[in-house]
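I hope you will forgive my troubling you with a question about protein structure. The full record is reproduced below for your convenience:

——
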Amino acid sequence: MRFLRTLLVLFLCASSFACAADKDYVVTISTSHGDIVAVLFDDTPEHKSNFIKLAEAGRFDSTEFQRVMKNFMIQGGDVFTKENLPPQEWPTIPAEIRPNYYHKKGMIAAARQPDGINPERRSNGSQFYITIGKVYDELELTTDMQELQKALMKYMELGSQEELKNEYIRLYNEQKFDSLTNLILSKRDELEKSLNVKLTKDYTKEQIEAYTTVGGVPHLDKEYTVFGEVIQGLEVAEEISNLPTQRDRPIEPVFMNVTVEKMSRKKIEKEYGYSYANDK
């Protein structure tokens, strides 16, 4: 009898774990512009747990999207300023930078202090941002523009490149910067071959597909912890990013209330069209 009771307990425990694993938290960020709905990733557990605790405690409520930049991102959730905690006492979270998560449009990531004072890239304990970004041309996306510019300056000093140098100067003086960028990019492969230098950035096929179709902010990749994704209401985030600002702060404040609700993963996939196959 004791053996059967033990088996029953083990079965119930296993069933409870399976049920718990089959559910996830749905995050709703409510603003005067509408709701933004998101899920948080299991393999950034410190960030996920911290966000949920703050939301369940109501600590995000009445914070703002206090930093807004068109074609870049919206940042908010400054809990500790709202609670009058001195900046030197703001808690941080260990970085959970995963190679499979990158800054395509609609991703949620943690704000942080710069590398100079934060070499471990620890995240702010409350502030997060939602990426907006832009859609990239593949050539522009995969080119290291800083290194390409350096290589071009060196290349134009060759006597054989006088015509290129004159064209570069003409476009610059006429402030035709789009044409100038196209000229520089058109010389990438030629410069790589002639100077024997690497001028490309390494992106996966998935990243290239995302940044050239959906868009995003690729230069932030591998620098900040991405820990969630918007699954509904991305147009609300985009609307907020386009608001008039003064020093990147919306002239009309955008306050938020944040709630979390547990829901079966199957229901989340069905209702929001989200696939957990991507959350790996």
The radius of gyration is 24 Å. Confidence is low (pLDDT under 50) at residues 6-10, 12-17.
